[in-house]
């Protein structure tokens, strides 16, 4: 069994991963738990273990940390929220940020 680097258990991603592992009857060998995703990736770079990343940033992570994708879990998704006091986005800067995020994350 491969070693795993995972987010701490107080995160939505970790809870989703734990549920997926259990459904697949996988008992991961957890060698590190991280609050900080950059630190998790830094430990993953030299090969300390497998680690999850969102598909939306996989190209950037592969390039920056010199790692390879070994699998995908389409059943697990992450949510991103933009919070605004306005019901409709009207400010040009807010619209630009929202549109750019939508294109980069989901485009």
Q: Could you describe the 3D structure shown?
A:
The protein is an alpha+beta fold and about 110 residues long. It folds into two domains: about 5-65, no CATH class; about 80-105, no CATH class. About 40% of the residues lie in helices and about 10% in strands. The protein contains four helices and two strands; from the N terminus they run βαβααα. It has helices at about 10-25, 35-45, 60-65, 90-105, and strands at about 5, 30-35. Helix 1 (about 10-25) links the parallel strand 1 (about 5) and strand 2. The mean pLDDT is about 90.
Summarize the structure.
Helix content is 40%, strand content 10%. By secondary structure, it is an alpha+beta fold.
Helix content range: 40-55%
For the biggest β-sheet, the strand order reads 1-2
Rg result: 16 Å
Low-confidence stretches: none
What's the number of domains?
Answer: 2
Total of helices: 4
- Gross geometry: elongated
Structural class: alpha+beta
Distance between the termini: 35 Å
% residues in beta strands? 5-15%
Largest sheet: 2 strands, parallel
SSE ordering = EHEHHH
Mean pLDDT: 90
Number of strands: 2
